[in-house]
Amino acid sequence: MADILLVEDNEMNRDMLGRRLERRGYSVVFAVDGAEGVAMAKDRRPDLILMDIALGEMDGWHATRLIKADPDTMAIPVIALTAHALSSDRQRSVEVGCSDFDTKPIDMPRLLRKIEACLKGRAASAA
Predict the structure, then answer these.
(1) 38-91 pLDDT, tens digit each
(2) In terms of DSSP H, where are the helices of the chain?
């Protein structure tokens, strides 16, 4: 199954979402802030990144821009995760290079559909 990098600064959210993804067969690695997420994306080259937006010093928007600017990581799909459901947040996620956008609290069936769609899209473009 696919490798997912979860970039999330809230320990409870990391634990809950990580366990739910692992139960569905995904391999999950974690980063606790934007800078670590960028470094792990380059080092681990996951199949997909779930990027929290409100991360502190380097927010998820900036981290995604750096990931998408790097030729080694630019093809990794990124799904933005945020507690804000504003259309401006959705638009900004597209502008920085996210493949999709989802809101918290996480609706697991919806997020899983988005993850699968992104992974299928990546596999199709790699073929």
Answers:
(1) 999 999 999 999 999 999 899 999 999 999 999 999 999 999 999 877 778 888
(2) 11-23, 34-44, 60-69, 87-96, 108-126
Q: Rounded to an integer, what distance in angstroms lies between the CA atom of residue 94 and that of residue 45?
A: 21
Q: Are 51 and 8 in contact (CB under 8 A)?
A: no
At 8 the three-state DSSP class reads coil
The CA radius of gyration of the chain, in Å to the nearest whole number, is 13
Residue 121 has a pLDDT of 86
The tokens for 14 are 């990391």
36: domain CATH number is 3.40.50.2300
Q: How many structural domains is the chain composed of?
A: 1
Q: By residue range, what is the domain housing residue 101?
A: 3-126
For residues 69 and 6, what is the distance between their CA atoms, to the nearest angstrom?
A: 19
Q: Which two tokens stand for residue 120?
A: 């299928």
